[in-house]
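Work Package 3 (structural annotation) set out to generate three-dimensional models for the target panel prioritized at the project kickoff. During this period the team completed the workflow that converts sequence records into discrete structure tokens, so that structures can be stored uniformly alongside our sequence database. As a representative example, we reproduce one entry of 181 residues exactly as it appears in the project archive.
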Amino acid sequence: MNDKYLDKNYGGIFIVWDRLFGSFIEEDDAVPCVYGTRGPLRSWNPLWANLHSYAEIAKDSWRARAWGDKLRVWFMHPGWRPADVAQRWPKPVFDIARVERFDPPMSRGAQALAIVLFIAVLTATTLFLWFAHRLTLLEQAVAAAAIFAALWAVGRVCERAAHASVFSRKTALRGLRPEQE
């Protein structure tokens, strides 16, 4: 997330490409690297975690007035926005000091359920990878979809407390009990 390291060190371990294309930067002890996203994800949903950037690009493409900008937004560097879109829908300036960690409170029961589900997903993934060569393409697709759905369920259990607190605030503002909703 740091400005200094933004769009650098894509290779992580295998840095040949970063060195070839000039995207390698040595880590500085004075500026420790902070990992994460610059925009708040505020979700544990694995589908949304992988697709939210494309949703933002699609939104900017839709909002752009010029046809060239509608296309260019898909190929420019991360964070680039058409001038008219940036003017009409400005994004707040990123300040690393104000980054909030998404860590909704969870009950012990929800934590236990998330751990059990995650262990089940790890076991299912291991078995799937071990026996994938014996499965038909349809069976592989169904197994992969089931594993993905289980990962989504783990995320949903983990973020349910965040949604519950929003729900509680909304009902409290209206003076209603949840069962009256």
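The radius of gyration is 21 Å.
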